[in-house]
Design goal:
Blueprint (H helix, E strand, L loop, with lengths): L1 E7 L18 H16 L6 E5 L2 H10 L5 E5 L7 H9 L5 E6 L3 H9 L17 E6 L12 E7 L1 H5 L1
Parallel strand pairs: 1-4, 2-3, 2-4
Antiparallel strand pairs: 1-5, 5-6
Helix pairs in contact: 1-2, 3-4
């Protein structure tokens, strides 16, 4: 079995007047990222590999999860990637539990296409900032991952974790 933690970056700061790729998280985003890390650790869902967009907001989200030393690949192709690109990156993964950090609209579309059955969560369809899907695949190698081939293990959004 392989497990994917599919996370959209936390809320970014639009007020800084920086290019999109360089935009950092805002204060709420930083709190959300830390809450997501607490949730992952409490659920004992820890990655042994990370595939992360090269954008500042995904890097900052990853840092604030406080996951410790994890093999990480920062990939330019994950910045604003379409589902096909996200799948191709995942198919090259080596870990048993992989965290993929990327952006909407691609990551939300990827999440919806990846699971055989969507969770009954009202926010799954919009995949807001910080949305996190934990999906399981009955495969031996990531190269065998296919759209529609995952089962939802868990789904959360930061707003629920902070309330």
């Amino acid at each position: 079995m392989k497990r994917l933690i599919l996370m959209r970056h936390a809320k970014s700061d639009w007020s800084v007047g920086m290019p999109d790729h360089a935009r950092p998280l805002n204060p709420r985003g930083r709190k959300s990222a830390e809450a997501l890390g607490v949730w992952l650790r409490a659920q004992d869902i820890l990655p042994d590999q990370v595939l992360c967009s090269s954008a500042a907001r995904t890097r900052e989200t990853l840092d604030l999860l406080h996951l410790g030393e994890v093999a990480t690949r920062f990939e330019d192709r994950l910045y604003l990637a379409e589902p096909a690109t996200l799948l191709k990156s995942l198919q090259g993964a080596k870990g048993n539990t992989v965290l993929m950090l990327a952006h909407n609209p691609g990551i939300g579309d990827f999440a919806r296409g990846l699971v055989a059955r969507a969770p009954g969560h009202p926010k799954f369809g919009t995949y807001p900032t910080g949305a996190t899907l934990v999906a399981d695949f009955e495969i031996g190698e990531w190269s065998d991952a296919r759209m529609g081939g995952a089962l939802c293990h868990a789904f959360t959004v930061p707003r629920e974790l902070l309330s």
